[in-house]
Amino acid sequence: MTTSNARLRAEPGSFRDPANRVFHAGDQVLRGLGRQAAADWRALSAADFFTALLAEGKVCGTTPVDPATLPDTGWTTVLRHERIPFVSHPYEWSFTMLQDAALLHLEILRRALPAGFTLKDGSAYNLQWRGAGPVFIDVGSFEPARDGEPWAGYRQFCQTLLYPLLLQAHLGLDFQPWLRARVDGIEPDQMRRLFGGTRRLLPGVLTHVHLHGAMQARNARSSTADVRAQLRAAGYSRDLALATVRGIEKLVRRLDRRADGSHWVDYQRTCGYTAQDRAEKERFVEAALAVAGTPRLVLDLGANDGRYARIAARHAAQVVAVEQDPAVVDTLYRALRDAGERRILPLVMDLADPSPGGGWRGVERASFAARARADVVLALAVVHHLAIGCNVPLPAVLDQLVAYARPGGRLVVEFVHPEDAMARRLLANKPDGLFPRYRREEFERLLAARCRIDRRADLPSGTRTLYEAVVGG
């Protein structure tokens, strides 16, 4: 399908900046620019710092589109962006992922300012991932810098990047629920209540929480033009803006995630698999992926340390490794980042409470279910956690797993028998007789009603069974 006859679809999450908007034509990602934004783009595309960022892969690939290949868009100029393999949201990232995203944002701003450009936005949503590597996607956020004007994106940066990092580093609070609750991030007033007393003296808190909040309250009745005039009169310069960015960069780099005693960090040692079980499971997964050819997307649900995500990455273009425990995801991300892995994206998510749609009209941030249409879904050792641990009926568990796969996609699922030690541990905390239908025969019947079962294998321990099935087959 050519762009000229492809139907244009506006991106639901791109509407807040009237100067430009992202839309889609088939598989292409396009950005329309208004008159001023088009002029800014022409200057930006000729700047050495920007071409260097593109070459380094730190900004998403962007090229202008020949207007003759497009239907009438109503925009002065149209750009084509590279397609990000899987769009994720900041509340699905681990601490180090958010930290690396913040550092990339600051690096780009630090390199833009001496060249006469700034970023008018500071949102964490302006960054995405190629595997374990962050990439800046909001090319429309660049604009010429003017002396005497502060970084317009500072507040957004604090609320969606810096404040979540401070929560985790200083208080040991997982930031994901805070970001998921508000699309605009954490307000300074919320932070001030948490960082009173001696906590005010923790690194970054006095300047970026208390002083920021006080200045925001003081300027609440002033227009943006008045604030800019006051700053120019006070001698605020581009050099001072650059020094501020460098100071925040130094602060963010020094922050570290508080260690905790997560049970799941050591899961591979404590899960009870024998060496024979693990070897047979790996062979089964490898064979299922080989049959699938070269999947565009594999979901590894309950990925833990990424053992099976790494197997999937040998076959697939992209693997999304979903795990509930933020500490486990952080450990996995650091290992993938250090190995330069660009095919595996680890995400923090509770499969019993996956990311819903959010923001304006509930579609500004797409739900996980809307984004997940995989060629292969790996659901290894998760069914019993959902069915027993979370009291989700078996039919509903399978309905959701099947929904994550595209029609004709493959589902590789493990059923843990009620006699298994892990299942017994979960059942021990439940009333007797609560799960009478949690049986292998019932699971197979339900699976066969939704898929074509191509293969099954009992692990050597005898208490776990693997299935390979075709969705809708």
Considering the chains and any ligands shown, give keywords for the structure.
473 residues; alpha/beta; seven-stranded mixed β-sheet; 16 strands; single chain; five-stranded antiparallel β-sheet
Describe the overall structure.
The chain is 40% helix and 18% strand. The chain is an alpha/beta fold. The chain starts with 7 loop residues before the first strand and ends with a strand. The mean pLDDT is 90.
Radius of gyration: 25 Å
Number of strands: 16
Q: What value does the average pLDDT take?
A: 90
Please outline the major beta sheet: 7 strands, mixed
Beta strand %: 15-25%
Question: Which segments are poorly predicted (pLDDT under 50) over 5 or more consecutive residues?
Answer: none
- Category by helix and strand content: alpha/beta
User: What oligomeric state best describes the polypeptide chains here?
Assistant: single chain
